[in-house]
């Protein structure tokens, strides 16, 4: 039977348990988000493409007045807002994973992730601002 003092130093029990760093189970939730948002995006994007490109005359009827009439409805505002947010966060999470896989230095990862966060935040804020403040009465 092996005794405690026979164990090599590298296999010694830690004196204090390690503290978990970051958000617990973040990668698990990010993985689940990618799957569920991907399914939702299929329906949102295909529905958007069908309505805009095929239904009732297709692409030839799309102009400012058509978009103004469409965004006058809360249903289409919510549809486009969900499409914007899900697509941006889904894409940013994918890019975050790619940066984590291919960037070698921690400083490179930090700056690339910071740039990604800034670009994603800017696009979400600007897109949400346009969707919320759009005045359909100017058409």
UniProtKB/TrEMBL annotation:
Transmembrane segments: 29-55, 75-98, 110-132
Key words, A-Z: Heme, Iron, Membrane, Metal-binding, Transmembrane, Transmembrane helix
GO cellular component: membrane
Localization (cell): Membrane
InterPro entries: SQR/QFR_C/D, SuccDH_FuR_B_TM-su
Domain of life: Bacteria
Signal peptide extent: none
Primary site of residence: membrane
Record-level Gene Ontology MF annotations: metal ion binding
A Pfam family reported for this protein in Swiss-Prot or TrEMBL: Sdh_cyt
Protein name: Succinate dehydrogenase
Protein source organism: Mycolicibacterium tusciae
